[in-house]
């Protein structure tokens, strides 16, 4: 298996944490996609992922799988013993639901602020992100506010339960952790009163897979 990504970015981090959780770090070869040079927006990369984003998992039979959720689901179920995506129908549904909230209300919101409200990944990448749209900075700021609202939502969730989707660590925790990681990159601070979210983050940071991702 090969992973096409750019280390240090939040979505690649999601898959790298999943790989470490599953003990698969040494089973994959990493292929560097030069993100700051916008290699992910050029035809050869678009041929493997038309969305023009990393990471992408390449299977040995030549299949390319994009989307962190799809990649994580694949990796988690490879050995028939899923630990990140749930085992019962109900667990799978709740994890999917909470991880989607993590994506929309925090990770993507923080990412949109980073790309549209700040210089983002630099001028080469920015040229592919609606550069002539006059409302881009204002929209970026709205997305920052949305990310902060997302933090408050997850703080409330974590005041009632140990992990984002219930009693056990899951893909939803990885998504929210990556959302906070993206917020750090964009310098969006966690509100002081979000004590449960901050305590959860400290706990999650101590997991070997998060501390030492693939
Ligand atoms: N929905 C995708 C999102 C991936 C994504 O946005 N990756 C970022 C890196 S953190 C990226 O490639 N950004 C480049 C860009 O948007 O130009 C997934 O789940 O994999």
Q: Secondary structure elements and their pairing?
A:
Blueprint: E1 2-5, H1 10-21, E2 29-32, H2 43-46, E3 56-58, E4 64-66, H3 68-77, H4 89-117, H5 123-126, H6 136-158, H7 171-185, H8 195-205, H9 208-211
Helix pairs in contact: 1-3, 1-7, 4-6, 4-7, 6-8
Bound molecules: glutathione.
Structure, explained:
The protein is of the alpha+beta class. The protein has two domains: 2-77, Glutaredoxin (3-Layer(aba) Sandwich); 89-207, Glutathione S-transferase Yfyf (Class Pi), Chain A, domain 2 (Up-down Bundle). It contains nine helices and four strands. A four-stranded mixed beta sheet has the order 2-1-3-4, with helices on one face. A hairpin with a 5-residue loop joins strand 3 and strand 4. Helix 6 crosses helix 8 (195-205). The mean pLDDT is 97. The structure holds glutathione. Glutathione (GSH) binds next to helix 1. Glutathione (GSH) binds at residues 9-11, 40, 53-54, 66-68, 125.
């Amino acid at each position: 298996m090969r992973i096409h990504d750019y280390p240090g970015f939040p979505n690649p981090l999601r898959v790298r944490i999943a790989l470490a959780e599953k003990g698969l770090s040494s089973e994959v070869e990493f292929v560097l996609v030069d993100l700051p040079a916008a290699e992910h927006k050029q035809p050869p990369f678009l041929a493997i992922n038309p969305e023009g984003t990393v990471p992408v998992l390449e299977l040995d039979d030549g299949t390319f799988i994009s989307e962190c959720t799809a990649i994580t689901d694949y990796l988690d179920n490879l050995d028939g013993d899923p630990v990140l995506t749930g085992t019962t129908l109900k667990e799978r549904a709740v994890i999917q639901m909470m991880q989607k909230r993590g994506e929309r209300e925090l990770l993507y919101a923080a990412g949109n602020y980073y790309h549209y409200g700040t210089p983002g990944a630099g001028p080469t990448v920015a040229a592919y992100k609606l550069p002539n749209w006059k409302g881009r900075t204002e929209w970026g700021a709205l997305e920052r506010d949305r990310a902060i609202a997302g933090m408050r939502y997850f703080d409330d969730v974590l005041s009632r339960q140990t992990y984002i989707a219930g009693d056990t660590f899951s893909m939803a925790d990885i998504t929210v952790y990556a959302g906070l990681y993206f917020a750090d990159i964009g310098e969006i601070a966690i509100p002081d009163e979000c004590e449960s979210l901050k305590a959860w983050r400290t706990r999650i940071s101590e997991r070997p897979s998060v501390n030492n991702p693939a």
